Amino acid sequence: MIERPRYLEKLISKRENGLVKIITGNRRCGKSYLLFVIYHQYLINNGVKQEQIIELALDETANAKYRNPIELDKYIRSLVSDTSKQYYIFLDEIQKVEEIQNPYLPNPDAKITFVDTVLGFMKLPNADIYITGSNSKMLSSDIVTEFRDRGDEVRIYPLSFSEFYSAYKGDKSKAWREYYTYGGMPLVVTKKTPAEKSKYLKDLFTGTYIKDVLERHKVINDSSDLEELLNVISSSIGSLTNPLNLSNTFKMENIIFNELKI
């Protein structure tokens, strides 16, 4: 187990505070692991029974039915009917729950979203709600807007060096070299060779993070400008920059490109 004491303490301090605990962070940084493994084990170790912990991974095909907010609402409420027990509800990848037309209203603009469903759970007297979310639909700014003062965000990041070293098999100096070379994404620790580590990070960047940016900003045309922007920023690490400098760089590159074409 990779220990993440900083984030565990945050969840412990927010336990049963009457708000929805929202765990956010970039993909593959350990949100689900924190909730489903580390915090789950903490609750079990402190007297909570297994049947009091309700876990639902909404990115799994087996749970596709519950991506409908009405079906999700029915399912969770059916599991917390015993009011003599305190329940802990873990909903992973909540952004998978689709926005649907409200079937009880004629207005075509009347929608039901995961926010409506989760806020409904918050009103259950015997339920403590925890959700995770990532990608273009669950940025911190969205959380503030959607949940306002009813959500309590826990923002997590990739592994710190101390967290990385707690799961590393080897001496500290070697661990440090690997950490500053490949970073602190949790799954990097499990990769055996430099080639495997590099491939994992490249695939994560191009296949996941870039895709999220394109989705977030509805980029449907050629994404080459975004790739060029990333190249410019990457080549300027450690240097001050601003939007004007980036704009000027693009203009200069376009001039050079056009001259080469001529």
Sheet/helix structural class: alpha/beta
Strand order of the largest sheet: 2-3-6-1-7
Let me know the number of strands. Answer: 7
Can you tell me the overall shape?
globular
The string of secondary-structure elements, in order, is: HEHEHEEEHEHEHHHHH
Mean pLDDT: 87
Write down the Rg: 22 Å
The percent range for strand residues is 5-15%
Helix content: 40-55%
Unreliable residue stretches: none
Number of H/I helices: 10
Give a short account of the largest sheet: 5 strands, parallel
| Span between termini | 60 Å
Textual characterization of the structure:
This protein is α/β, with parallel strands linked by helices. The chain is built from ten helices and seven strands. It has helices at 5-14, 31-45, 69-79, 114-122, 140-147, 161-166, 172-182, 194-216, 224-234, 243-261; strands spanning 20-24, 53-57, 87-92, 100-101, 111-112, 127-133, 151-155. The strands form two sheets. Strands 2-3-6-1-7 form a five-stranded parallel β-sheet, with helices on both faces. Strand 2 (53-57), helix 3 and strand 3 (87-92) form a beta-alpha-beta unit. Helix 3 (69-79) runs parallel beside helix 4 (114-122). The longest helix has 23 residues, at 194-216.
